[in-house]
User: Which sequence fits this backbone?
């Protein structure tokens, strides 16, 4: 018999925290949150890291649901997933206000 120890909110908060656990990912979220619409440039031009490394960071943010992307070759558009970002903000605030 499996007993659930952690609440859904605790699991979501931990997932968002993991996604924000690297300065590159924090930078990407800050950059995207300042855009009025999707960012369609090459993010590797903004950061002094290899494209493959950036790709892994973007993948982590996408898997956590904090960003979304559309492929429109030759570019990929990235946006903050507003619904999940608002949820993450709420969960962090509740956690930190405890």
Assistant:
């Amino acid at each position: 018999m499996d007993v659930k120890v952690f609440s859904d909110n605790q699991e979501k908060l931990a997932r968002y925290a993991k996604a924000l656990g690297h300065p590159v990912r924090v930078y990407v979220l800050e950059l995207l949150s300042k855009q009025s619409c999707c960012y369609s440039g090459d993010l590797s031009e903004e950061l002094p890291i290899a494209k493959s490394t950036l790709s892994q960071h973007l993948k982590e943010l996408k898997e956590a649901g904090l960003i979304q992307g559309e492929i429109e070759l030759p570019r990929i558009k990235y946006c903050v997933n507003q619904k999940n970002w608002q949820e993450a903000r709420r969960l962090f605030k509740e956690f930190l206000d405890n």
